[in-house]
Design a protein that fits this description.
Methane Monooxygenase Hydroxylase, Chain G, domain 1, Membrane-bound Lytic Murein Transglycosylase D, Chain A, two-stranded antiparallel ribbon, two-stranded antiparallel sheet, 4 strands, 7% strand
Length: 313
């Protein structure tokens, strides 16, 4: 609103601002109180389902696992721990229950002292000894050669020297009878009196049958060296046992192939001594193996050349 006031000749304009209407906060419209909503009780989660049973390996997978396990044995014999472990992992991926692969893997990862104990006796290496043979004699399993090597800090189980002193776990004792050894003969009876051992001794044919069953079991588990020794013993007891002869020939060929494979692997690594040793194993089983003869001679010639070069230098 504007007011004009006259004072003499002066005109005074007074501007009076209109007062703004007072603001009133209106209450929001009254809303109805929402009705209570009954929420359903969440259902209990279903129990976890059982994992599906693993698929059993096929015959081809079992065979591949067995081959890889044998390759791992060769690698571990040559001191290749990483290669051996990788090969065992592959074998177990094909067949997780392969006995040889599981046995070797345990030796790779286990602590030797915990496995074999702290008590031991000393043994001097003799001619024709190997850690596999000593493991068979004193530990009852030739495939325990690897943990026996670790027990003695031997980096390469296939390299032990005549006269070398190693530790054998346990107390000093006679070796368990090796399958390649001649069975102990009973003492002659005293005249006029029979001994209890005579009355309880099984007939030879029963012993031979039991030994043959043991040989088949060792072959099934991949212990071809032990199987060959057992088959040979059966044939010695019963020269007319054609099945034992055929089995011995079959296992011999498997060993020849294995040892020749070890020789070829050693040659590829330029391991001359390992090549010669593996070829010697082949030729002990198959003296006419021409490839092993040639490979062995090549390794010997190369070794001699290198020795001459070292002497000149």
């Amino acid at each position: 609103m504007a007011l004009r006031l006259t004072a003499g000749s002066s005109v005074v304009w007074v501007c009076v601002a209109c007062t703004a209407p007072s603001t009133r906060t209106e209450a929001p419209p009254k809303q109805d109180k929402p009705s209570e909503v009954t929420r359903p009780t969440p259902a209990a989660p279903p129990p976890p389902s059982e994992p599906p049973a693993p698929r059993p390996p096929t015959a081809e997978e079992r065979q591949r696992a067995a081959q890889l396990a044998e390759e791992a044995v060769s690698l571990l014999q040559a001191g290749d721990a990483l290669g051996g472990k990788d090969t065992l992992d592959r074998a177990l991926s094909f067949d997780s229950k392969n006995e040889l692969a599981r046995k070797m893997m345990r030796q790779v990862v286990a602590d030797p002292g915990s496995e074999l104990g702290s008590a031991y006796f000393q043994y001097k290496i003799q001619r024709d000894d190997s850690l596999a043979r000593l493991a068979q004699q004193y530990l009852g399993d030739r495939y325990l050669f690897y943990i026996l090597a670790r027990y003695n800090n031997i980096p390469r189980p296939d390299r032990i020297q005549l006269g070398q002193v190693i530790r054998i776990p346990g107390k000093a004792r006679s070796p368990t009878q090796d399958s390649s050894s001649t069975p102990r003969q009973p003492a002659p009876p005293t005249a006029g009196r029979s001994t209890p051992s005579q009355a309880q001794a099984p007939p030879p044919e029963d012993v031979g049958g039991k030994r043959f069953a043991e040989a088949k079991d060792m072959e099934r588990k991949g212990d071809f060296e032990g199987a060959l020794d057992a088959y040979t013993e059966v044939v010695r007891r019963d020269p007319g046992n054609s099945e034992a002869k055929q089995s011995a020939a079959r296992v011999t060929q498997r060993l020849v192939d294995r040892y020749y494979g070890e020789a070829a692997a050693a040659k590829a690594r330029q391991d001359l001594e390992g090549t010669i040793t593996a070829c010697d194993r082949v030729l002990r089983l198959d003296p006419n193996h021409q490839r092993a003869k040639a490979m062995r001679q090549q390794a010997i010639d190369l070794r001699d050349k290198l020795e001459k070069i070292e002497k000149k230098s």
